[in-house]
Design goal:
Layout: H1 3-10, E1 14-24, E2 28-31, H2 38-41, E3 47-56, E4 58-63, E5 71-74, E6 78-81, E7 87-90, E8 114-118, E9 124-134, E10 150-152, H3 159-174, H4 179-201, H5 209-214, H6 216-227, H7 235-242, H8 246-257, H9 261-276, H10 284-290, H11 296-307, H12 311-316
Parallel strand pairs: 1-8
Antiparallel strand pairs: 1-9, 2-7, 3-6, 3-9, 4-5, 4-7, 6-10
Helix pairs in contact: 3-4, 6-7, 7-8, 10-11
């Protein structure tokens, strides 16, 4: 069982590349908080965030609140901002602009990406900007494990990433039939690749769900849970399967996952059941049985306790996809949706 792939499939990771932008001379493209434009760019996604791939030249990336040191980007680098941080890409540190929110709309009369070509002069910077969307309810252990900034240093040392970037360039240049869906899948692949690089860079033993994937025993426990979610798991049984004592396993699992093993099992079952409730012809009892509940009443109680609404109500409300304000982090905060960039007096990207 590949746990990361299982989670990304269950939470329906989707991508889109919106802007192919070339700027020359002094320029700045500023992104507002994601939550201000998410409903315009990916209205069907519960959670959306934003990434840039530098195709040519070099520039700076900054958070507008100045809480992180400016980051120098060069050709082939990919950067993502998963935590709803307003940010800028710019030719010089400290430049700012006012975003035009009306620019962030999925077109109905043309094919993505929007092409932006601004300024004069030899020295240019070209990048593509895209969105990634996914579900965060009932349970998404992946999103809250991400850092504020994800950065993959590019094409020079990462052959696979280089191929993806070059393919994105060719697709934005040609505008062939089916190009928009190809770019969407490329966005997903680019993001997964930078997440994989991030996981590889994490210190052993560091907190977080992503670190847990690499831990020998906790990674094995996660594979067991995801591979057999309907199993009658207990802490004792999981601990025995991976060769740890009950107390050591419980402490170690909570250190990485942020919840106890049985809380994780229950929440992940609700995520899977919620997806099954979207399938025509699947009853509430069937959805519950598929994730390990012998009676519909027990499933109803567990679903309401974890999700906050009975499964029947969840199914009836599927036409209303919850937005950012309804999607809490485990720590009591709120998950953002997406941000987008814009250029100084000119268009957004």
């Amino acid at each position: 069982m590949d746990v990361l792939s299982d989670v990304l499939a269950a939470v329906r990771l989707t991508g889109a590349i919106f802007f192919d932008s070339t700027f020359r001379n002094d320029w700045v493209a500023e992104a507002p908080k994601a939550s201000s434009i998410a409903h315009q760019v990916m209205p069907s996604a519960q959670y959306v965030f934003y990434f840039h791939t530098l195709l040519e030249g070099a520039c700076w990336a900054e958070l507008t609140d100045g809480s992180i040191e400016p980051i120098r980007l060069r050709t082939g680098d990919v950067i993502a901002f998963p935590m709803d941080d307003a940010h800028v890409l710019c030719s010089k540190i400290g430049m700012r602009a006012k975003p035009e929110l009306a620019m962030f709309v999925h077109p109905v009369d043309r094919q993505l990406p929007y092409l932006i070509n601004q300024g004069i002069g030899r020295e240019s910077c070209r990048f593509v900007c895209g969105y990634l969307g996914c579900d965060i309810r009932p349970y998404n252990p992946f999103i809250s494990a991400l850092p504020r900034v994800l950065l993959a240093r590019g094409a020079a040392s990462q052959l696979w990433l280089s191929h993806l970037v070059n393919h994105a360039v060719s697709e934005t240049d040609c505008h062939d039939a089916g190009g928009e869906i190809v770019l969407a899948k490329l966005a997903e692949l680019l993001f997964i690749e930078i997440v994989r690089q991030h996981i590889d860079s994490l210190p052993m033993g560091s907190r977080g769900w992503l670190s847990g994937l690499r831990h020998p025993q906790i990674g094995q426990a996660l594979r067991l849970i995801h591979g057999r979610p309907s199993e009658d798991w207990t802490i004792e049984r999981l601990a025995r399967e991976i060769g740890l004592s009950r107390s050591v396993f419980a402490d170690r699992f909570t250190h990485f996952a942020g919840v106890t093993p049985m809380q994780y099992v229950a929440r992940w079952r609700m995520q899977l059941a919620a997806r099954r409730l979207e399938t025509p012809g699947i009853s509430v009892a069937q959805a519950g049985a598929e994730v390990g509940y012998e009676s519909e009443a027990a499933f109803n109680r567990a679903f309401k306790k974890i999700v906050g609404t009975p499964p029947g109500s969840w199914r009836r409300n599927l036409t209303h996809r919850p937005g950012v304000a309804e999607a809490p982090f485990a720590n009591g905060g709120h998950l953002p949706l997406i941000t987008k960039l814009q250029e100084t007096p000119g268009p957004a990207l």
